[in-house]
Specification:
Elements lengths: L2 H29 L9 H11 L9 H24 L16 H12 L9 H4 L2 H31 L9 H26 L10 E4 L5 E4 L4 H10 L20 H25 L3 H28 L2 H5 L18 H13 L14 H13 L8 H21 L4 E2 L2 E2 L2 H32 L17 H15 L14 H30 L16 H35 L1
Antiparallel strand pairs: 1-2, 3-4
Helix pairs in contact: 1-9, 1-12, 3-4, 3-6, 3-17, 4-17, 6-7, 6-8, 6-17, 7-8, 8-9, 9-10, 10-12, 10-13, 10-18, 12-13, 13-16, 13-18, 14-15, 14-17, 14-18, 15-16, 15-17, 16-17, 16-18
Length: about 575
């Protein structure tokens, strides 16, 4: 077998082997059972006492969402003003300027919502203070927000009937102290020992082999890069993200970073099954997600290893596959694996340039973000999957002539309406946002004004449409990666994607938690011979079919206008 393919198998295999015990550990942590990290309880108690929080105070789902939205609003205001004034603050050895209002608006929303869509270039766009005390801080707390929301969802189905869903702050703090901080420290040490910078010194200078003087940015990057992956954040310390040799020095760090960005999403699926005492359901969900991942990964690898048909027509053999935009130290196969997992789990980090991938690869990347439930982000992945699951339950109930039920709770009109709204939200944001961008470009493409659409696209053909579609899709999915042929640091894109980021993050969290809270409060209905079992592979395949049909109906026309049209044009 090709050694590059063995690298992919080894990386994914290690991820699953580590995720299973991590999932068991998380189930115990959030259930309040004894775990080996209980020595951190005094630290957590001090945080609660300092903040005036009673972690034993039970909340209903509305109180959870109120706490979640309130604290996120505080972080948004704080980060906005720091980024605008970073040039006047300390820890800025490279003298980076403060951000404009529209760029600060976009950047802080992006990090608050766990997206990290960067319209600035990492090392030259923000100071060390902003990197650590805004960006890295938000990478921790935005991930913990998603995890806490997921645990609220877990709690709703643990007991037969309940409105008491634990304490948001307890889940939030434990997500950081018991999970994110320990793993980040461990990973940061690995990166630092492999050459990733970890000091507060400014740019270094060296003479290249050609005799040129080169200034190289550095800084305390190792810890930042660790949480960027573990928290499915994706924002890079350096502008080119994990394609940068200091952010991702070698194949070992490449494996570590790949494992880090997938391990918590898989572990949360395992934890869900254990937490609600329905392990079989957890494994069915994991199986459906894995099938979806493989159906995106396999054609992506094939496309990248096959290379460009246009070059083949010139009689040139591409023995190494499509290497444009790839790092030689990694190669096309593991880069294809990275591009798949980073788009299905909303990390958005890159070790190669997505804008340079083959057209069909771009289609699979887009589809992974549009579905946004094959593993998904930390906590929110299983929330996104739950919406599809509720629709599958509803359709299945109609097919057999029974009132739909999920885990002993009747799914009625109110829950289905919420699920339908959330299902329609993503296509609306993606398609309406792309349509607005296309209209603006075509109408004002030669205008000389603040939006400057004439500077947006280096490729104004099918690929240019794909670049705009990718930008809006990435924002809605809280992903953050981009087709970087698009000039996005302007008022239009900063405001448009900022709005999409905000709506695309919080409504898909509120919706599933609301459904779970409503279901959890209903009278428990014991299982009978006629009960629709949701922990079977048959129902898993039904859910998978719902995912495919809904997304095909929603997005096929847009994909046909972009990456698919580019592919067939290339063949012609």
């Amino acid at each position: 077998m090709n050694s590059e393919l063995l690298g992919i198998i080894a990386t994914y295999g290690l991820t699953v082997l580590l995720a299973i015990p991590l999932g068991k550990y998380l189930a115990k942590v959030f259930a309040g059972e004894k775990v080996w990290t209980d020595f951190l309880k005094p630290l957590e108690s001090a945080i609660y006492k300092l903040s005036g929080i009673n972690p034993k105070e039970e909340m209903n789902w509305k109180q959870h969402m109120k706490a979640l939205l309130t604290v996120n609003l505080v972080w948004l205001v704080y980060g906005f003003f720091v980024l605008m004034n970073q040039d006047k603050l300390p820890l800025n050895p490279d003298s980076n300027p403060g951000m404009s209002a529209d760029l600060s608006f976009n950047s802080v929303i992006s990090f608050v919502v766990n997206c990290n869509l960067q319209h600035y270039s990492g090392e030259s766009g923000v100071s060390y203070l902003s990197q650590h005390f805004v960006m890295m801080f938000l990478q921790f707390v935005s991930c913990a927000t998603g995890l806490a929301a997921a645990v609220v969802f877990f709690k709703a189905f643990r007991d037969k009937t309940t409105v008491k869903l634990g304490n948001f702050w307890d889940f939030f703090v434990k997500s950081i102290t018991r999970l994110l901080l320990p793993l980040s420290l461990f990973m940061a040490v690995i990166l630092a020992f492999n050459g990733t910078p970890a000091s507060y010194e400014g740019k270094d200078q060296f003479i290249s082999l050609q005799g040129d003087t080169v200034n190289v940015s550095r800084g305390p990057a190792a810890g930042f890069i660790a949480i960027k992956h573990l928290g499915t954040n994706g924002g890079g310390w350096f502008g080119v993200n994990s394609a940068h040799p200091l952010e991702n020095p070698n194949y070992l760090t490449n494996m570590v970073e790949l494992i880090a960005q997938v391990i918590i999403p898989i572990a949360m699926v395992v934890a869900f099954g254990i937490f609600i005492r329905r392990k079989k359901l957890g494994w069915v969900i994991f199986g459906v997600m894995t099938i979806g991942m493989l159906l995106l990964l396999i054609p992506t690898i094939s496309s990248e290893l096959g290379g460009s048909p246009a070059i083949e027509k010139m009689g040139i053999t591409q023995q190494t596959g499509a290497m444009e935009g790839k790092e030689v130290r990694f190669g096309p196969a593991i880069s294809a694996y990275w591009s798949t997992v980073t788009t299905i789990i909303s990390t958005g980090s890159v070790n190669s340039m997505h804008d340079s991938t083959m057209p069909l690869t771009g289609a699979w990347q887009l589809l992974g973000m549009m579905i946004n439930s094959f593993y998904g982000g930390c906590g929110v992945g299983i929330l996104n999957y739950f919406i599809y699951l509720i629709i599958a339950v509803f359709i299945s109930g109609l097919m057999v002539g029974r009132t739909p039920e999920f885990l002993g709770h009747k799914v009625e009109a109110r829950e289905v309406k919420i699920a339908a709204i959330i299902t329609l939200l993503s296509p609306f944001l993606i398609l309406a946002g792309t349509a607005l961008a296309s209209y603006t470009f075509n109408t004002y493409g030669n205008a000389d004004w603040a939006v400057q659409p004439q500077n947006w696209l280096n490729n104004p053909d099918f690929h240019g449409f794909s670049e705009m579609l990718y930008e809006v899709t990435s924002s809605n999915a809280n992903n953050g990666s981009g087709f970087e042929g698009l000039g996005d640091n302007n008022i239009f894109w900063n405001v448009l994607t900022g709005v999409v980021l905000f709506i695309g993050r919080f409504l898909p969290i509120i919706g599933p938690v609301a459904i779970a809270g409503l279901l959890g409060a209903k009278k428990y209905v014991p299982e009978s011979a006629g009960t629709l079992k949701t922990d079977t592979m048959t129902f898993g395949l039904m859910t998978f079919a719902v995912i495919i049909v809904l997304n095909a109906l929603s997005y096929f026309p847009a994909l046909a206008l972009g990456p698919l049209a580019e592919y067939f044009t290339m063949l012609k």
